[in-house]
Amino acid sequence: MLLVDRETMQNIDSYAINEIKIPSLCLVERAALSVMENINLDIRHSFALIVSCGNNGADGLALARNLLALSKDCDIYIIGNKNKASKDFIINYNACKNLTKNIYSIETIEDMNFLRKNLDRVNTIVDGIFGTGLNRPVSGIYANIIDLINEKNIYTISIDLPSGFDANGENNYGTYVDSDLIVCMQILKKGLYEDNYFKDKTVVCDIGLPQIAIEKFINI
Ligand SMILES: NC(=O)C1=CN([C@@H]2O[C@H](COP(=O)(O)OP(=O)(O)OC[C@H]3O[C@@H](n4cnc5c(N)ncnc54)[C@H](O)[C@@H]3O)[C@@H](O)[C@H]2O)[C@H](O)CC1
Ligand SMILES: [K+]
C-alpha cells in the first residue's frame, strides 16, 4: 500500500504543476470528478458544499459546478477571505456565481445561525475546508463550523482529508470533521491509513499525477 505524508504530497503536486507543466486546474477538475463518481446521485439530491479559499475549496467549487450542471440543488458556503483565494478557487467561484444565487459567506454569528438552519434542507454535506494545506490548530469560525457539521446527522463527504485532521496523523489540531466518506486524492495519506476509524471510510482516486512525479519523491 503506497502511503504519503503531507510534505511529500505537496512536493509531488508542485513538481507535476511547475516542472511537468500539468495545469493545476486539470488536477482540481479530476479531483472534483473523482468525488462525484463516489456520490450516488439517485439518492443524493441536495448538497451543502462548505469550502475555504485554498485548493481543497477549489475542488469543492469544481464539484459544485459539476453538480449544478446536472441541475442538482446546491448551497455553497465560503469561509475565509476570497481576496486571498487560490486562482483555481476563483476560476470555479466565478463559474458557480453564474449558476446559482445560493452562495453565502460565513463570517458572523448570524451567518452561523443561518448555516445551522439551512443545513437541515440538504441530505449531503461536502467538506472542502482543509486538505493537505492544514498546518496549525483549527480555531475560531473554522472550528465552529466543523463542530456544527458534526452536530448534524447529515451524510458528509470530505475531499482529500477530513478537515482538521492532520494528513501525517502526528498533530492534534483540535476538532475535525467526522466524515462518512473521504475521497483521497492520488495517494493514501499516511494519517488516514494509520487511523482505524477513517481508514475504512477512505477511497483513493487517481487525479492524473504521473508516476514520474510520484517516483521522484517516493521509492516504489
Ligand atoms: N496540485 C495541488 O496542490 C492539488 C491540490 N488539490 C487539493 O488542494 C488541497 C491542498 O490545497 P492548499 O491550497 O495547499 O491548502 P488547503 O486548501 O488544504 O488549505 C487552505 C489554506 O488554509 C490555511 N490553513 C491551514 N491551516 C489552517 C488553520 N488551522 N486555520 C485556518 N487556515 C488554515 C493555509 O494557508 C492553506 O493554504 C489538497 O488537499 C487537495 O484537496 C487538488 O485536489 C489537486 C491538485
Ligand atoms: K476536506
UniProtKB/TrEMBL annotation:
Residue span, YjeF N-terminal domain: 9-215
Where does this protein hold K(+)?
56, 127, 163
Q: Which HAMAP family match?
A: NADHX_epimerase
- Gene3D superfamilies this protein is in? YjeF N-terminal domain
Entry cofactors: K(+)
Q: Which family does it belong to?
A: Belongs to the NnrE/AIBP family.
Q: What is the lineage of its organism?
A: Bacteria, Bacillati, Bacillota, Tissierellia, Tissierellales
Kindly indicate whether the keyword DNA damage belongs to this entry. Answer: no
Q: What does this protein do?
A: Catalyzes the epimerization of the S- and R-forms of NAD(P)HX, a damaged form of NAD(P)H that is a result of enzymatic or heat-dependent hydration. This is a prerequisite for the S-specific NAD(P)H-hydrate dehydratase to allow the repair of both epimers of NAD(P)HX.
Name the Enzyme Commission number(s) assigned to this protein.
5.1.99.6
Q: Which InterPro entries match?
A: YjeF_N_dom, YjeF_N_dom_sf
Provide the cofactor note recorded for this chain's UniProt entry.
Answer: Binds 1 potassium ion per subunit.
What is the name attached to this protein's record?
Answer: NAD(P)H-hydrate epimerase
State any single GO MF term: metal ion binding
